[in-house]
Amino acid sequence: MSEGFTITRQIGIDAGHRIPDHGSKCRHLHGHRYVVEATCRSVDGTLQAAGEENGMVLDFGFLKEEMMEHVDAPCDHGLILSFHDEEVLAMLAPPGIDAGAWLEELRGTVRAKGYAATEETRLGQKLYVIPFPPTAECLARHWYERLGPAVSARSRGKAKLVKVTVWETPNCRADYGVN
Fold first, then answer.
1. How far apart are the two ends of the chain, measured CA to CA in Å?
2. Which of 23, 37, 116, 177 could bond to 129 as cystine, CB 3.0-4.6 Å?
C-alpha cells in the first residue's frame, strides 16, 4: 500500500449461520459475535482541507452510519445463509406460501442485488441470503463490495475503502481488500 492516512471503524453484530458442506461442527446452525472492521484510506494521501471533515480521511460517524446501514441493519440478530442451503431455507418459508416459489424469489433477488434481506419468514426470523457460503472470508469480501461505493460517495471521492476485516471469534479473522 502507498503512504498516506488510514482510519478504521469497527462494529459488532450477533448473527447465526451454518456452513452446510463443512465436515465438522460448523455444518450445524450456530451463532457468532462478529466484529466487523472497515479501513479507509485518503485517495491522494492528504486529509480533507475544508468543511466539517477538515483534517480527516472520513468522519468516523459517517463510516459508522454506512456500516450500520449495510452490515448491522440487515444482519444483526439474524440468520445469514447461502441460497444453496435449501433445507434450512425451506424451514423458514412463510406459512401458507409454497417453499419452492419463495426460494426461487429469494434467489432472483440475490442474483439481482447480490443478497436478499427479509423478515417475511416463518416466525418473522430476520434472514440475509447470499450466493456463497457464509464464511468469514466470503462475508469480508461481500461487505467490502457493499461498503466500497458507499465510502466513496460519502467522502465525495476523497476516501477509498481498502480493507474489511471480519472477526468470527476473538481468535479468528478474515480480511479482504487491496494490497
1. 6
2. 116
